[in-house]
Amino acid sequence: MVITHVLSSFGTGGQERVAVELAEGQVARGHRVLAVSLAALPDGPEAQRFRAVGAETKTLPKRGSGFDPGLI
Fold first, then answer.
1. How deeply is 22 buried, as exposed, middle or buried, from its count of CB atoms within 10 A (0-12, 13-18, 19+)?
2. SS3 category, 12
């Protein structure tokens, strides 16, 4: 199964830490895990932690503060 975690950024914060811990367990159970950041580059420090536990990372910068139809 492919599991995707969509995050506002790869910065250091609660949501990112929880997602890394979830990703680590999911990878250990044989799932393919993708972490997606909606913040512009450069990646924050948690991107490396995702990669270290075996998750893939992608950055899809969100435009503006509201809904961005380009993300679909």
1. middle
2. coil
CA–CA distances in Å: residue 28 to residues 9, 32, 36: 24, 10, 19
d(CA 31, CA 63): 30
Structure tokens at 70: 């380009």
Query: Residue 40 gets which letter from DSSP?
Result: P
Burial class (CB in 10 A: 0-12, 13-18, 19+), 67: exposed
Please give the distance of CA 5 from its chain centroid, rounded to a whole number.
Answer: 5
Report yes or no: 37 and 60 within 8 Å, Cβ to Cβ: yes
> What is the reported pLDDT for 68?
64
Q: Look up the pTM and report it.
A: 0.83
Q: Compute the residue count for the chain.
A: 72
- Mean pLDDT in runs of 10 for the chain (72 residues)? 94 92 98 93 90 95 70 60
